[in-house]
Amino acid sequence: MGQESAGIVTSNGASPPTYTTHKGMGLVNTAFSPEALLKLRYGNLGICHTRYSTTGISELQNCQPFVVDTLHGKIAVAHNGELVNAHALRKKVMRHGVGLSTGSDSELITQLLAFTPPMEELDSPDWVARIKNLMTETPTSYSLLVMFKDVIYAVRDPYGNRPLCIGRLVPISKLHTTGVGEEDTEGWVVSSESCSFQSIGAKYYREVLPGEIVQISRHGVKTLSVVPRPEGDLPAFCIFEYVYFARPDSIFEGQMVYTVRQRCGRQLAIEAPTDVDVVSTVPESATPAALGYAQQSGLPYIEVLCKNRYVGRTFIQPNTRLRQLGVAKKFGALTDNFAGKRVVLIDDSIVRGNTISPIIKLLKEAGATEVHIRVASPPIKFPCYMGINIPTKEELIANKPEFQDIAGYIGADSVKYLTVEGLVSAVQEGIASLQEKDNISSCNKSSRKVGHCTACLTGKYPVELEW
Amino acid sequence: MGQESAGIVTSNGASPPTYTTHKGMGLVNTAFSPEALLKLRYGNLGICHTRYSTTGISELQNCQPFVVDTLHGKIAVAHNGELVNAHALRKKVMRHGVGLSTGSDSELITQLLAFTPPMEELDSPDWVARIKNLMTETPTSYSLLVMFKDVIYAVRDPYGNRPLCIGRLVPISKLHTTGVGEEDTEGWVVSSESCSFQSIGAKYYREVLPGEIVQISRHGVKTLSVVPRPEGDLPAFCIFEYVYFARPDSIFEGQMVYTVRQRCGRQLAIEAPTDVDVVSTVPESATPAALGYAQQSGLPYIEVLCKNRYVGRTFIQPNTRLRQLGVAKKFGALTDNFAGKRVVLIDDSIVRGNTISPIIKLLKEAGATEVHIRVASPPIKFPCYMGINIPTKEELIANKPEFQDIAGYIGADSVKYLTVEGLVSAVQEGIASLQEKDNISSCNKSSRKVGHCTACLTGKYPVELEW
Amino acid sequence: MGQESAGIVTSNGASPPTYTTHKGMGLVNTAFSPEALLKLRYGNLGICHTRYSTTGISELQNCQPFVVDTLHGKIAVAHNGELVNAHALRKKVMRHGVGLSTGSDSELITQLLAFTPPMEELDSPDWVARIKNLMTETPTSYSLLVMFKDVIYAVRDPYGNRPLCIGRLVPISKLHTTGVGEEDTEGWVVSSESCSFQSIGAKYYREVLPGEIVQISRHGVKTLSVVPRPEGDLPAFCIFEYVYFARPDSIFEGQMVYTVRQRCGRQLAIEAPTDVDVVSTVPESATPAALGYAQQSGLPYIEVLCKNRYVGRTFIQPNTRLRQLGVAKKFGALTDNFAGKRVVLIDDSIVRGNTISPIIKLLKEAGATEVHIRVASPPIKFPCYMGINIPTKEELIANKPEFQDIAGYIGADSVKYLTVEGLVSAVQEGIASLQEKDNISSCNKSSRKVGHCTACLTGKYPVELEW
Amino acid sequence: MGQESAGIVTSNGASPPTYTTHKGMGLVNTAFSPEALLKLRYGNLGICHTRYSTTGISELQNCQPFVVDTLHGKIAVAHNGELVNAHALRKKVMRHGVGLSTGSDSELITQLLAFTPPMEELDSPDWVARIKNLMTETPTSYSLLVMFKDVIYAVRDPYGNRPLCIGRLVPISKLHTTGVGEEDTEGWVVSSESCSFQSIGAKYYREVLPGEIVQISRHGVKTLSVVPRPEGDLPAFCIFEYVYFARPDSIFEGQMVYTVRQRCGRQLAIEAPTDVDVVSTVPESATPAALGYAQQSGLPYIEVLCKNRYVGRTFIQPNTRLRQLGVAKKFGALTDNFAGKRVVLIDDSIVRGNTISPIIKLLKEAGATEVHIRVASPPIKFPCYMGINIPTKEELIANKPEFQDIAGYIGADSVKYLTVEGLVSAVQEGIASLQEKDNISSCNKSSRKVGHCTACLTGKYPVELEW
Q1: What residues of A are in contact with residue B332 (Cβ under 8 Å)?
Q2: pLDDT, tens digit (0-9, with 9 covering 90-100), for A25-84
Q3: Which chains lie within 8 Å of chain C at 3 or more CB pairs, if any?
Q4: Which among B356, B357, B360, B403 has a CA at the least distance from the CA of B379?
Q5: Is residue A46 a contact partner of residue A13, using CB atoms and an 8 Å limit?
Q6: CB 3.0–4.6 Å: which of B455, C343, C460, D159 could bond D236 by disulfide?
Q7: Which residues does the annotation say bind Mg(2+) (chains A, B, C, D) (predicted)?
Q8: How far apart are the two ends of chain C, measured CA to CA in Å?
Q9: Smallest Cβ distance to B97: which of C94, C99, C115?
């Protein structure tokens, strides 16, 4: 999903293996020229990482995957998430006499994995033991890919905070009747978002479970271990992935994100109805919720804004100024659709209030008689320490004095939010019905516990934060 | 709209004027760095051009505006459209002893304007006479901006084939309550598409009429002349602008493009109904037609595809390979919304058939039981010689043998197109109702004749083509 | 010689011909990537131009060769020099109704050549007549290459102000014993400086004479005409080429530039002797003069400065600041060679005084007891209107009050210049001896008159300047 | 000296310090834009590194200085040279559980320095102890700069294999009478080559001695320790720096490189006289030797070649093809200077024979009757493992069968080399005379032993090589 930098490391799987690396700044198609991709093709396995800056600093040096040479050979690590106890772990590693060349968690993880207990045999590193050891050092938040020679380990933290799923590459002959079938197109892929599978001709296979260590090799996919959570703790999959971050065609916990958002819209229509003429959306991310709201309320769904092509996404730009700049130019008003009408506009979330305010102004200038805002998620009040780029507490609109009269502040006739309970039930309702229907893959079924991280909404973090 | 190159020329309006020029390749924000824009600000008038390659060759040298030095000083010309008799005009100009340094119509136009009849007084060029002379030399297709010292002439050919409209810059104080009001933000802007006004804080004022020569200067907007068409000829505004090319929030002939597309969808539902469960769209351009189809047919409207961010528009890339490459990666299937259902998918046009075929395949693989295609425009069968980048006759799907069984060819359960009559009535119905309501600006009102170029659909070109 | 931009146009020689053009900014190896060169190879003739900005503005648009389409097909023109009556010619061309898209003489020349008298037959342009007509319109200063289909015309103005010479490509088999001999490597090349021949495996053949129009085609090299000067006028080859501008291994008028510079150094030793310990040079351009001075005076020649690699030439940068910036970093002092000694330092010219002053300071700080400057050319006092980038009159050190005490101003113990008479005799002595020995090629021999443009030194321009 | 990449790290000297880093590919003025330099100015100390690839691979990741975060804060390391026992050290570091992210010696050195013995107090790292420890781990070859907070440690290995010297920044007011004097321009600089001092307005102060650890801080320059060599070992300063690598105005061991090269030329004239008409040089690096040869032999010195501007140095390009490509275009023949004469051409070294062969051919084609080659250094026969980019043993001309008839192979009339003894005496003669005159700074004086690494000539490496 990142648009700041991208990196790929491939291995030829030989012994010793040759790794080939390319990293570049910008979107994937900028970072990877055809020449760069060509040099990467000598390999039958590889890991990749795309990145949006969570710190405001984008440098090639911080670009993953991180590769280090160890006594046993090179390992490559790609990491999604943020270690909650990174600071303490850095101290520990440095106390051992290791210098860290970047501020990234990825390097920290590679050094923790490189660490060889003296008694260990040199020629047979026990990666499962090392990864399990890493997982005891840090509870969350991480989804990891670790490549070593001819094997990739896919790992998800015990709380399952960041997503990770496995797909199966389908031979080209089964996808495109005109294409040439080649055997070598079979294989396995792992990704944070299942939506990425379709574009490379792969099918969703299953999620990596919280705490699971999966080995992917020429022998297929195999669960090596499932590291448990402390007794009594529930999983803590990031609920914000459903609300905002994931692409709507992604699947988490067996359900499509789009469907969850549509349920949020229905729930919102129940919790916060309005007396208006039409329902509309802030395109495109709020559209499923808006359609859900329209279906539940019986109000007609129309479009009030069209997106200006060629303008990037608001969220993942590293500073406020860049986020604000695009807003005014982003949307065109479809005046004739709503002039003289009362509009309820569904948005997926209001983080800073920078985006929605000019939109309301735009609609009113263009003739809307009333503009009501319904937000298909609760107010964000707390920082995320687990890898989502949420602004500081002070920047969040829900923590500002203006929030007391948010409608007045953003110029709306009314503003209402979905409740935390409403959101959680909209999310978990689908999982419950799935489990009843028992149609998820056997490995995900049965005793699976359900739980979500709502820390940014409630301040209840899944683990105690160390400082 | 172009994404191949862009250029700006500003004038400081002095006597003699200083012109500042910047041209660059790529999208506007690539072509114009902040430094480039800074050097352009010394001026109170300017013209700009963005370009998509109509010939497959993108070179900076062909980038408009074209500036030439004449006996009276420099003129700058920006041109949208394509001169139907360019070949004969080039010969004429070269026979006069002029060498042409590019193959562009823009240079040809500047040389035609530079041409000084010997009797003319040196220090007072009669630009209206020169422009009128140009308009007698070539009937269509062009919308022109001609800048000379401190005046811009906005010109539309007598058939009004390409759009051109005028907007008024609103002082910033009236747009943003927190902004600082500065007097100098008042002014006039001219554009092919009215949708561009909103993003710079301007309001739609009116269209330039077919054949009209409008002078824009410090004294405001003034009609200098309206060059008539040959008696009996109707205007020939490009109907394809409504169907595909324009942004939906643009206004042509007093009506919003979105509304016209919605009417096309309604008309399509009348002409070509289907027995299915749901209506959907190929996002985003077909969405108004799909909503129109849903409203008329009473079928529920759902989304079946989500767009992959970061992938450019299909149409305006200069060759087939580039057009095809993006298709597979462009959309994600919203599986749960349509699995087990019969779908009618509305598209705005089918040019080559390259895009719709993999989409249908995708929907069927994801579980749609039937996929019917309804196209909200008639088949394109003929080349455009007036500036729209339509493929050659041979490349158009409607001229291929496969068109006889188009449904089979693209893998649909059925395919139906809007009729030419249906399209024309959907377009003109709105203009008629506007004229009845008499709420268009006085200059557009009254005796205005209505007519559209449907050459790409019918082969009936507005003027005889010279070769 | 230019380092600002470069362009190549090749022709495939067919009827009608296809021309392929590439232009780029920067040094030749920056401007021409391997890909760019590859696309240019489809042709058996071509013209090229490299350029240093004479106006301070470097834009791709002004980059030569200039190509225009005429009634008879495309012509391409590359031009070295500056038309003394460019202003009047521009007016004339524009009065004919031609718009000029650049301020360059090259475009002006192409438009003058494109100009078709109405009586002329369309299918057989008489290029010799056109070129002769051009030469009657403007006396100097130009060396031209005009390419049309399968012919190149090499033209030098009647005063021969700018150099132009012809070389013969030697088959590779005769140059490199290990290379494969291919017949197609035979051919002809034309260049401003003969030194360029060696690097492509060509041999010097002869100069193009003042006023000569040479046709180069598959049939070889043929003189079409020699346009005479007004009676009584001598040739006016730029003497500054000998003094500073040309590479020392170039040949003009039958003599090597290095030899002329060495003679200037000998003459300088006669005109301006010094009582010092050692002779040295400002590397590298003054070295031949310094060796000549050492030989004539009997003083030992040593090196006092080493050049810092990676810093470009001082002269051909478009503005003062860029010229100055490099000076301090350009040279390293070879302290041990001159500490405690009296030095006479030979320079080839002092244009602004910016370079020599810090060098003297550097030598004195490093221990030279005296530093005397001897300049192997007379003071430059007048601007050049014929294509050499000399600073404005006001910027020239010789026109500043400081010149009265130039030694004090630049910190030298004494400063003396070569006289104009001394320079002219050093230049012409070699030509005289050549003509006596009669060993120059027959076409250059016999009645050849000798004369040089010393306008920048004396203010006597070869033709009357029009304004 | 490098032209592949460059990096700078500055520290603001605060507690804790902020380090600012910029690295870039290419020559220094490419790698560092004005913007990049601007961001680096917040600091009063910094270290920098330029690099030419010794391995053929240039990547930003390998670009120095290397910065790592340690328990005590960040350290930055710049390194010139190559650790002879790098392989064993890497194993050792990795055995400790440290992953190495690059293959560079610099990272290895930082990790060795980061290594904290457990007993050490956390808040007071003893850098001298750590650096001394590093120096016991690896005998050679390295000159190091280690920056920590507000101190820079300048370190040279016990054998003094790579050069390192200290300069003093002179206040601008004392350098340029017109400049504004600012106090903050005083300070200290450290460099591999003293020639770099002049271009920034610094004066040579002294060398860092073999084994010396010098501390540079706000309190000035202070020797902390001098780590001794194993008893009986002499210093082993790279003799190739004198012969080829250093700039001629650099000072090593108290003598100017130019003077040493001139002495080599004189010695060569004694060892290998020739019966010819003129002496000349392969410009520019062989010129001092050629002048020395001319002085000793009494033969006249002339120039036979002029260098083509705009072509880079032959030696420091990473592969053979790039080295060869430039040769043909590099020189122009000054024909008239040597036609009909017998020439002895002095070269500084013959590494592969690629350069000299086409030059001889060129001179003969241009009329030289004989061309004798005298090389001012002995044949290179052995690889360097201490940081100089010498080709593999197989690529060296002196190890090829052709070397038996080297004159025939390169097309010369005779070829002779300076002897190893001749070279060593030419180098050490100057040091001896300096020590006699006792005019070197006190710290370099007295008991200083003299010794040079001639491994590439003799195969006698200063330390035993580990594999």
Answers
A1: 195, 198-199, 247-249
A2: 666 666 666 666 667 766 789 898 886 655 434 455 667 889 999 888 899 999 999 999
A3: B, D
A4: B403
A5: no
A6: D159
A7: 285, 347-348
A8: 29
A9: C115
Q: How far is residue D424's CA from residue D454's CA, in Å, rounded to a whole number?
A: 9
Q: How far is CA A370 from CA A258, A345, A376, in A?
A: 28, 10, 19
DSSP annotation of C256 reads E
Domain count, chain B: 2
Cβ distance A236 to A453 under 8 Å? yes
Residue with tokens 């490099």: C326
Predicted pLDDT at A314: 34
C337 CB neighbours in chain D (<8 A) are 256, 258-259
Strand ranges for B149-209 from DSSP E: 151-156, 165-169, 187-191, 202-207
The pLDDT assigned to C440 comes to 44
CB contact set of D438 (below 8 Å; sequence gap of 6+): D445
A271: its two tokens: 């919790």
> Does residue A140 share a domain with residue A69?
yes
Residue B281: Cβ within 10 Å count: 25
SS3 A360: helix
CA distance A243 to chain D (A): 37
Considering CB atoms only, which of A61, A99, A114 is closest to D70? Answer: A99
What amino acid is encoded at C316 in this protein?
I
pTM equals 0.80
Q: Do C330 and C308 contact (CB within 8 A), yes or no?
A: yes
Taken as a whole, chain C contains a residue count of 467
Question: Same structural domain for residues B256 and B341?
Answer: yes
With a cut of 60, say whether residue D32 has pLDDT above it. yes
| Highest mean pLDDT of the ranges A38-47, B193-202, D102-111 | D102-111
Inter-chain CB proximity C99 and B60 less than 8 Å: no
A215 CB contacts (<8 Å, ≥6 apart)? A151, A152, A153, A221, A222, A223, A224
Taking phi over 0 as left and psi of -120 to 50 as alpha, with beta for the rest, C253 belongs to: left
- Which one of B20, B101, B123 would you mutate to disrupt binding with C, by most C Cβ within 10 Å of its Cβ? B101
**Residue C46: burial class (beta carbons within 10 Å; 0-12, 13-18, 19+):** buried
Instruction: Give me the CATH number covering residue D366.
Output: 3.40.50.2020
Q: Predicted confidence band at C229 (pLDDT cuts at 50, 70, 90)?
A: very high
Residues C228 and C367 in one domain: no
Whether chains C and A touch (3+ CB pairs under 8 A) is answered by: no
Give A7's pLDDT tier (boundaries 50, 70, 90). Answer: confident
In a domain, C153, yes or no: yes
Residues D401 and D264 in one domain: yes
Q: In terms of Cα–Cα distance, which of B333, B344, B301 is closest to A292?
A: B301
Highest mean pLDDT (candidates A20-34, C39-53, C408-422): C408-422
Asked if residues D34 and D87 have their Cβ atoms less than 8 Å apart, the reply is: no
Mean pLDDT, chain D, integer? 84
Q: How confident is the model at residue D96 (pLDDT cuts 50, 70, 90)?
A: confident
| Interatomic CA distance for residues B408 and B405, integer angstroms | 5
**What's the burial of A99, exposed, middle or buried (CB within 10 Å: 0-12/13-18/19+)?**
buried
Strand order of the β-sheet with D202-207 is D187-191, D165-169, D202-207
